[in-house]
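Appendix B. Raw example, untouched.
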Amino acid sequence: LFRLLRVSQLTTDNVRHFVHASFNNYACQNNVIMGNDTELVIRKRLRFHRVNDSSAISNKLWTASKCRFRGTSLNVGLNRQIKASGLNSTSQRHTVYKHLLLNFQGDFDNYQQVVDDRKNLLTPRDGGGHENFHCTLVPLSETSRLAAFYFDGNPQRIFRFRYYELLLPSASSEDDMDDESCCIEMKLYTLNPDLERELRSCSEEPLKWPAMFHSFEIDESDKIKYLPNCEIRWSVDMDPVEHAYALDHDKSKLNKEEQDCIHAVMVHGEAVVDSTIIPGVKIRILDQLSLYEDTFYINDRGLDPESGAFIYGNQRGVPYRLDRVTRLVQNGEEDGQWERQIVDEDLAWTMGESWRSSDDYDAKIEAMGGLSAIMSGKKPTSSK
């Protein structure tokens, strides 16, 4: 319903009528009770999109809803970015793109979030807490990134590789005043298993990955595999519902940074994909992202498409909050090779064995109550 508000100019009465009718129909089929705060949330959403009371609509909302539920993407709505900032679409797109070039790279880790969880007796999965994981982003070109995610400061435990491709709008769209012209879209790909295996062999030396990727002897088209309907749309716009967590971002850390951030949602709202870990299993993917200069929020959840049961992600809906560990800088030589520049010395241990002693590692894991896999479903003691 919230996505429909983004593609339709609505009056308050139209919203109330549609929400109650649609939600009640959904509730009858799915045994859901409509909450008392639904209309309040809708009204908040209307204020954010500056939707005014008017007599404009009649059938527009219902047409949009039928198309949306058939899977047809509509782009007929409000230009949220332009109304929010006063910038034209080209300026906003440049802002988003520049932010991605500068900040969508390096290492991030949510260790501090996990330690805070354990102090509050929150464990992963059913316990409402988070697993500890690390994200490494390495540029392959200006518009492409290799990403690796691993558990517990151990690069040998990579659980996901991704190839990200930033899509620049065509020159013909520069004067368009729609949502797409103000945003940067990003396509997601998995890697060829043999290529992934080779990259894992240098899991603690990710700066070697670009050369390994480009020299891997296979057709370029076979190195990566497109993930259908998983595109991400980056924007300066913060959705007040889907990005509500960003409102709680520690204000003491912001100042300039409060303005210097971008947010993302899935272009298609959600996607159902094949599990890369469990053959034959389908996963329904939901995701929102926020990228600050030194903080990366990932609200990635995987659900069973039929039962709705959680497969992964935080079950309280609290995003993973990853703090920057390193920033990649070019060495100034003719070859322009990347170097890791430490941003947070306290998190350097998360990059592998060469960055810590075994005693240091044991102490860090102890502060988290144990390895993430072991902690799943296990209640920590208060001493942790």
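End of appendix B.
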